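Researcher: Here's a chain I'd like modeled. Treat it as a single chain, no partners, no ligands.
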Amino acid sequence: MIRSVAGLRARLAEERGGGATSVALVSTIGALHAGHEALIREAGRRADVVVVSSFLNPLRFASAAELAAYPRTPEADARMLERLGVDVVFAPEPAELLPAGHDTTRISAGDHGLRHEGRGRPRYFDGLLTVEAMLLQLIRPEVAVYGLRDRQRVFLVERMVRDLFFGVEIATVETVRDPSGLPVSSRVSMLEGADLAAATRLPVALEAAASCADRGVDACIAAAQSALMGQPRIRLEYLAVIDPHTFLPADEGHSGPALALIAATVAGHRFIDNVEIYLH
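Model: Modeled as a single isolated chain. Structure tokens:
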């Protein structure tokens, strides 16, 4: 486990000098779970050396209280990383990667960063992309692996890599789900009883949207909303059908691939999910 930028550079130089021809990056903010395990396994299939970053990026959080509330499981994380045989773990303190703190130079996500996930958190994607860019610059991986649970993150990272000529392949892994159908996350384990039952309606709503793909965008959204009726424990933040190539809302005449996105809060815990649909 490496804590410093200098130590990271030295270790990667050693790996490459020892004959490693490819490096894969999996960037995380800790609190690892089965979804991260799938990313790490995919990274191992794609490269000689797997680097996992574990950095609770303060630029992604709206307040110090929100940052403090994020779950931390360092011992469990270390056991998973050891079990998976990860070659390099980069776990710097904030001052090592962000010595200027919130005054650091930032990547801008532009207007796309103010939609959906960024609508209520206007600095979120700028902070996320800034640290992703730092990691890509420091590690220079041949491939970086991301999960499709957060499609907007993947879209914006792919766009940044293309626009700024990073020269790294972006690979994706399908969302890992628990038996209830919810995407695996640190938040799911915090729910129980009626709250958990309510949260499981979110993937059901997306399935309802997908079942109406032959009837147009409005029908998809109406079907998803209907699946959430009578669920007072769910506070819906957004429900949208978008064009995956632009991440802009799909109009009623859209034909072809699309994504149904949902975000909601249950018992104070926030969940996001999505499903691919084909409108025709």
